[in-house]
Structures are given as structure tokens and as C-alpha cells.
Write a structure and sequence with these properties.
By secondary structure, the chain is α/β, with parallel strands linked by helices. The protein is built from 11 helices and 11 strands. Bound molecules: 1,4-dihydronicotinamide adenine dinucleotide.
């Protein structure tokens, strides 16, 4: 089993080398992202291993298929960057549905706490021996209302963390869980009541720009928005306007809708062309991290283990539980029977 591994980073390689040796898989690590220009690197490989910002559109799928690639092994949970319908009948796609919901939920809370208590400001001040406190006032989280959108694996861990802080939790999910002890409300009610809103749903046609100007208009003045899911859940221009109008009190963003050309790379010596991102980053009440919510040792190990096991299941058994459904693109609510393939 020979796998071309795109967008390889130093923190990925040791885990995948170890798992590759254990599972009998040869990974060839390419630093470059998968794009139409780089897809031919996969020539002679059985599969490719890709991440959130690799391009897997119809043209790339056709090239991979022509190179003899039979499997796209995502080393992440989300698959919004894959043209699944085009994959149907051509190439199989497996993913890592869960690797550490704790990593992402804990990062969401870390961002919320940092923004609320101005830790990012305090850190810079004390580094410069400035010990003044003005401008650093936060609020107690205890008793505040947090609205959680998406109550799957990560959303539920985040809910537990918030309850630990004594917060009131309300939630919205298109497919609410039964008997989960979660106080589900409509999206409109969630917008109107929440002091903090955290996004934990996937990016789909339904959720694209879920947070737009209209949604922001329905929110409380001073609301905090936390997004550790996918950038395009938020209309970044509308967010910027909401911040400038002092409607949005803070934004904590681990993801950004135009992140794919920027995140995971060092642009510190460059002029960044994206004015919206530059303006957001310049705001005192915005924190941007570069899609790092998953980045814990435990998550990296689980990602490598599950990806390797997915690859072995596919090539050895011809079936993999973590294969994505190409017809509905939805694992949890798919009518496809377990252990049944779409094609
Ligand atoms: P999950 O599949 O366990 O939960 C997603 C939840 O969203 C489900 O309860 C589902 O019913 C709900 N949902 C689906 N459509 C919805 C809609 N239109 N409106 C509201 N809710 C809807 O997924 P999990 O593992 O909790 O991950 C959530 C998201 O987190 C992923 O889709 C991914 O985009 C993001 N993620 C981000 C990472 C990062 O490093 N920043 C790492 C891992 C995941």
C-alpha cells in the first residue's frame, strides 16, 4: 500500500511513519498541498492522504483517477473540500470521524476565556513590564447563556465544559439528539438569548454563512462568536461590520472562510492581500488561530491510527466503516446500511 501524503507538516510525519511501519503502509510525504498542479505527484500510488485545505475538486479527482489512485484518505473529520458527487463511481473516500472531540472543544473554551479575560493583551503588556489593568475587564462566565450550534461529539464536550463553568446552555441542531438532556431551542431563540455562541456543526449547503448580517442583527449587543468548525459558517464581511458597529463584542476564530491559501504557512514577511482578514486580525477583540483546534498529541496519534486502519481496511477487506456516503454526504444520517458500499 503506497500512499502519497500531501501538505505534510513536521508534527504529522513521526506519527504517520510509526503507524505506516506498524500497518505495512509506505507513506511518501509531500510538503505541497494537493491541487490541480500537484495531483500528478500521485502517479503510481494506491491512495492519497489529504487534509482540510487540500483541493479535491472534479479536475483533481479526474487526475488522481487517471494516475491509478483508488482511495482518498482524509486525515480529518470534515469533508466539505471534497467534490463527493464527482467521486461517486471513480474513487473512494474515507475519513477520521472522531479523533479527539476534547481537543477542539477545549480550544474553543481556551479562545473564549482568552478573549473574555484579555489574556492576549495581558501577555503582551507584562512582557513589556506594563502592569496596568485598564482595558482588561472581562465578565463572569458563571450564569451567562451560551448557545451551541451543532450538538455532535465536539458540541457535547463543549456543553459539558460550559456547564462546569456554571453557564446556562441552550442549543440548536438540525437533528436534535433525543434524551440527551440538552435544552434545544430554535436558531432565532438561540441568537436572541445567547451571550456567547459557539459553532460545532459541519459546513454544508444549509450552514453556509449561517452567521450572516441578518443573524447578527438578531443577536444580543456584545455577543461573543466562537468558530472552531469551518470558516464559511460565518460571512466574514458581515462579522467585520458587526464588530465595527459594536454589535459583536468579540470573535474567536480558529477557522476562516478564505483560510486555504494562508493557514499552516508563514506569511510574516509578506504583504497579506486579504483585507478582511487583515482588518479582523487588527481588532483588539478578535483572536485568530490558524486551524489548530485539533492539535494535541492525542489527536495526532488517533488521526494517524485511524487513517492507517482505514487504508488497511479498504485495501485488504475492500470495505471501510469510515467511508463517506457519496449520495447524501452524511455519515450519521445516511440510509446506507453499515458495511454496505455506495459503489
Ligand atoms: P459531529 O458529526 O459529531 O456533529 C455535528 C453536529 O452538527 C451533529 O449533531 C449534526 O446533527 C449537526 N448538524 C448537521 N447539520 C446541521 C445544521 N444544518 N444546523 C445545525 N446543526 C447541524 O461532528 P463533530 O465531530 O462534533 O465536528 C463538528 C465540526 O467540527 C466538523 O464538521 C468540523 O467542521 C469541525 N472540526 C474542526 C476542527 C478544527 O481543528 N478546528 C477539528 C475537527 C472538526
Amino acid at each position: 500500500m503506497k500512499i502519497a501524503f500531501f501538505d505534510a507538516k513536521p508534527y504529522d510525519i513521526p506519527h504517520f511513519e510509526e503507524c505506516g511501519a506498524a500497518y505495512g503502509i509506505t507513506f511518501k510525504f509531500f510538503e505541497t498541498k494537493l491541487t490541480e498542479d500537484t495531483a500528478n505527484l500521485a502517479n503510481g500510488f494506491d491512495g492519497v492522504c489529504v487534509f482540510v485545505n487540500d483541493t479535491v475538486n472534479a479536475a483533481v479527482i479526474d487526475r488522481l483517477s487517471a494516475c491509478g489512485v483508488r482511495l482518498i484518505a482524509l486525515r480529518c473529520a470534515g469533508f466539505n473540500n471534497i467534490d463527493l458527487q464527482h467521486c461517486f463511481g471513480r474513487i473512494h473516500v474515507v475519513r477520521v470521524p472522531a479523533y479527539s472531540p476534547y481537543a477542539v472543544a477545549e480550544h474553543a473554551m481556551a479562545l473564549l476565556l482568552t478573549c473574555n479575560r484579555r489574556i492576549h493583551k495581558a501577555y503582551i503588556r507584562t512582557k513589556d513590564f506594563n502592569f496596568r489593568l485598564d482595558g482588561l475587564t472581562g465578565v463572569d462566565l458563571h450564569g451567562k447563556t451560551v448557545g451551541v450550534i451543532g450538538t455532535g461529539k465536539i458540541g457535547r464536550v463543549f456543553i459539558d465544559i460550559c456547564r462546569g463553568f456554571g453557564m446556562q446552555v441552550i442549543a440548536y441542531d438540525k437533528f436534535p439528539a433525543e434524551n440527551a438532556g440538552i435544552d434545544y431551542v430554535s436558531l432565532e431563540e438561540l441568537f436572541a438569548r445567547s451571550d456567547f455562541i459557539s459553532l460545532h456543526c459541519p459546513l454544508t449547503e444549509d450552514t453556509y454563512h449561517l452567521i450572516n448580517a441578518d443573524a447578527i442583527a438578531q443577536m444580543k449587543k456584545g455577543v461573543y462568536l466562537i468558530n472552531t468548525s469551518r470558516g464559511a459558517l460565518i460571512d466574514a464581511e458581515a462579522l467585520l461590520e458587526g464588530i465595527k458597529a459594536r454589535k459583536v463584542g468579540a470573535a474567536c476564530l480558529d477557522v476562516y472562510e478564505e483560510e486555504s491559501d494562508l493557514f499552516f504557512e508563514d506569511f510574516s514577511g509578506h504583504i497579506v492581500e486579504d483585507d478582511t482578514l487583515a482588518r479582523l486580525i487588527s481588532m483588539p477583540n478578535v483572536i485568530v488561530t490558524s486551524h489548530q483546534a485539533f492539535l494535541t498529541q492525542e489527536a495526532l496519534q488517533n488521526i494517524a491510527d485511524t487513517t492507517a486502519s482505514n487504508i488497511v481496511s479498504f485495501f485488504r477487506d475492500g470495505i471501510c466503516d469510515n467511508e463517506v456516503c457519496y449520495k447524501c454526504g452524511n455519515i450519521d444520517h445516511c440510509r446506507k446500511k453499515r458495511k454496505e458500499k455506495c459503489f
